Amino acid sequence: MTVKKNPLLIHRREHAEALLEKYDNFLFDCDGVIWLDEKIIEGVKDTLEFLKKNGKKFAFVTNNSSKSRQEYLAKFSSLGIQGVTKDHIFPTCYAAVQALESDLQVPKKSKIWVLGDSGIEDELEEAGYIPVGGTDARLNQAFRADHEFLTVDPEVQAVVVGSTKEFNYMRIASTLQYLLWKNKTIPFIGCNIDRSYPGPNGLILPAGGSVVNYMQYTADRDFINVGKPSKVFLEAILAKNGFDRSRTLMVGDTLYTDIKFGNDGQLGEGCGSLLVLTGGTTPEYLHQFLQNPNHYDEGESMIPSYVIRSLGDFVDIIQS
Ligand SMILES: C[C@H](OP(=O)(O)O)C(=O)O
Ligand SMILES: [Mg+2]
């Protein structure tokens, strides 16, 4: 793997010009890069427009499985980001469905048990699967040992777990029945491994990975991670867009998901990686990490090629 030991800080015009020269395709993480909750990060719209005018291609890759591609499309439009189509958007609820279809070959019309928000249910339905559990209001009830959802439905073929703000004991207990069922053999897909995400008002909030890891712990079994930094996910995005990895830059705010995703790749050949400091990674944390990357689980695979304070600064830097 070829990653730079010391990331280059993009703060002068010639740095930004060199990036434009080197990369044709940009994979953008969303939470902490494009937006914070419902607010677009300052300058991001101008940077995206500038890149587009310069012939650059985009894909948006988010580990947040709460919204479907259709809902993200509406979010991009409500934030005034033009020119985004459904084909540009890769949330992990969609990655989960792709894994069911391609890797696991689960037949269409199968029932899939969901612990997560409506994004997963909507993507499953669009692909021809039948989601069960999920946002079903009967799961909002207080725990009762005779609740109908504590008896497994024999038609369920797999379990998908992702981000949810409706995490309660009924949902945990019913999901556990499926994860333990058939000697723990039905596929367990986790939409992401993020512990937290940057929410509104500077709040750090629990992300989907905390839900997935809760279920992993209680069921005592591993999950298939379909989100960043999954190499399968990266390969699918590069292939779908026809992106040459050597001319593709991953832009993200989290070292163990986005930056590792950009740096890794099939046979160890990654894309470039650009870390922004508007989300989950503070300058202090980055500094501490760079002092001794090998003290961290994923070590040098999390060292970004480049760092910029904010994606929104890019256009100002290049026009300075
Ligand atoms: C943090 C993550 O979203 P992303 O940063 O990948 O858009 C998530 O919300 O779990
Ligand atoms: Mg992020």
From TrEMBL:
Binding site for substrate: 228
SUPFAM superfamilies linked to this entry: HAD-like (SSF56784)
EC number from the UniProt entry: 3.1.3.41
One Pfam short name: Hydrolase_like
Catalytic residues, chain numbering: 29 (nucleophile), 31 (proton donor)
GO molecular function: alkaline phosphatase activity; metal ion binding; phosphoglycolate phosphatase activity; phosphoprotein phosphatase activity
GO biological process: carbohydrate metabolic process
Cofactor note: Divalent metal ions. Mg(2+) is the most effective.
Cofactor(s), by name: Mg(2+)
Record's catalysed reaction(s): 4-nitrophenyl phosphate + H2O = 4-nitrophenol + phosphate + H(+)
Record's keyword terms, sorted: Hydrolase, Magnesium, Metal-binding
The protein's enzyme class: hydrolase
GO CC, one annotated term: cytoplasm
Record: residues binding Mg(2+): 29, 31, 253
Protein name (record): 4-nitrophenylphosphatase
Source organism per UniProt: Scheffersomyces stipitis (strain ATCC 58785 / CBS 6054 / NBRC 10063 / NRRL Y-11545) (Yeast)
Lineage summary: Eukaryota, Fungi, Dikarya, Ascomycota, Saccharomycotina
